[in-house]
Amino acid sequence: MENKAYKNLYPQGLPEDVEPLVDGFFSELENHLLLPKRYSRAMMADFSAALFYYLNSGVPLEDALHRLDPAKLGGFFSRPPMLWYPLDSAAKVYPLSMKRNSMAVFRLSAYFKEDIVPEILQIALTFTIKRFPCFATTVKNGFFWHYLDAAKVRYSANPETERPCAPLKVSASGSQAFRVLYYGRRLSVEFFHILTDGSGGMVFLATLAAEYQRLMGFEIPCQWPVLNIDEAPPVSESANGFELAEPSATSKGFSDTPAVQMTGDLSAVKPYRIIHFEMNSETLRAAAKKRGASVTVYMLSLMFAATGFATDRRSGDVKIQVPVNLRKYYASETLRNFSMYCSVRLPLLNASDIEGNLPEIAAQLEKKSAKPVMNDMMNAAVSLVRSLRFIPLFVKRPVARAIYGFLGDSVFSNTLSNLGVVTFPEELAERVEKLDFVLGTAETNRASCAMVSFGDTAVFTVTKLTRDPTFEERLLFLMKAEGLDPAVKGSEPYES
Asked: Using CA atoms, how far apart are residues 471 and 461, in angstroms rounded to an integer?
């Protein structure tokens, strides 16, 4: 141990009776960190800072050292990075679709009832990441495809300073394809969609949140979606779910005709603004039930009406993209991306008829998200990957764009990604006030929407790509008219 550097965090020095115990702890920690020196030093400092926090907070030394036990690192940071993962059939398209300052990023956040302690969150992430080896990776360029390469580095939890869902710098060697952020009581994880989808991301957030609360002294059981970080990750969690597609006579393509877009100049800053509509979950369910609709169908009807109000177009179709979690159709434990989408469309002239549109929206959603349709789309994705497999990566991007019509979001007017009702183990749920879900901006769509319900709070979030406030103002008007009485929160505009 280099000069026992951890002692620099203890201005008064360590009492003689505990110094051997602490020295032994850091010697054991050092044995678990066979990393490049810059990472090992930083992680030793992380543990020093956490121990210093505990001692200043009155936590007994023995308890503090037990919580920080280096054995919880396993051999993750003491073994060389050997694993690599080919991208799943859908994720292969995300790097190809990236433009400058634009990439498929989404955010999941948990709001605790007390401010986050950064020193403890950092240790929670260090302990948790070993359970998610396919996330502990960096994006690399192969000759034919991008792939995920294991990266044994210090994965960092950082204060939030940028706008939500800002592009990740994945091109740098060893760069993370996700980021962990904190601000006040909010813990956020932002993922490059190449790693996972909303369902897999929620498992990571829940597991990280649970480990943080354990380190804060609370007993949190390992119940879904909280994984046991001391268990070896099964291979099934990193599997390519698209390989489960059943053979079909047709492979439904992705191309479509352009959709009506909301008007308003596109902002140079992406996103321009994030707006959260917080509602009582039971009030929302009751309003949907009164209309004879599911919550998703009900919210889609409000979105169609608000979209129709926010465009100067007078003809064409309004189309809303709805991601579909394929795990409900296929027995898969994968934590990687395993979702497709369907498109619900209405003529612009009919978009404002909320009650009249509900049966049509419900019928389209049921039909277009059915397993046979999703299976055809999965086969289309697999077929596309197969057709491009021998094309060098440097020429694959324009070819993929020509074939893969859905890469352009001009075929949609908006998106609604609804994670539904999320439940945590009771002991963790007691420490969490609410969740929210934020989609990164698209290229053309002026807004993208996401939703998640937790406890008695449902949060509907709008990510804006334009200064024009018509869509969200109309949405708020409709929500109030429906008796939802939402609390409106979110960011101020992000200016360039």
From this structure: 12
